[in-house]
Amino acid sequence: xxxxxxxxxxxxxxxxxxxxRDITTLIKNPAAFNYTIDxxxxxxxxxxxxxxxxxxxxxxxxxxxVSYLTNKPLILLRKKDKLPAERxxxxxxxxxxxxxxxVHKDSIDKGDKILVIDDLVATGGxxxxxxxxxxxxxxxxAGFIFIINLFDLPGNDLLRKKSYFTAxxxxxxxx
Length: 175
Hints:
Elements: E1 8-11, E2 19-22, H1 24-27, H2 30-44, E3 51-55, H3 58-70, E4 74-79, E5 87-94, E6 97-104, E7 113-121, H4 125-136, E8 140-150, H5 155-161, E9 166-172
Parallel strand pairs: 3-4, 3-7, 7-8, 8-9
Antiparallel strand pairs: 1-2, 4-6, 5-6
């Protein structure tokens, strides 16, 4: 299946100069969504992990389904002040601003191998922050799976240079 035809591109969103890749058109199509989940699960079989993590918010859509299908616990990596219990926090830069993500302190045990799932890798800031959260929590990143890699932006290469396993289902230019 050609997943690219299920991704909508929106210029100048969320600000001028950004070409936003919208996965809502993919998830509203049952065949495309099922195919995407099947591919993520297929890739995940190459990785040794005992927990699945999702980066807010679009990562939740894919990771929750993968968690269910692989019978592994789901860890939420959320935006600042969205988690009610004690949490670890990491600040990071985005292509178009700054942000903070957090994880509950009791979500990851020492030595846990965490698979990180998100919709897209661009500059790598969010993924790198997720890796830092996992590290701070005592866990290890087992790998990253993204739906989209923006191949002309440095994110995927940044993660690979840090020796992380990465996989993406489709590639687009970032601009």
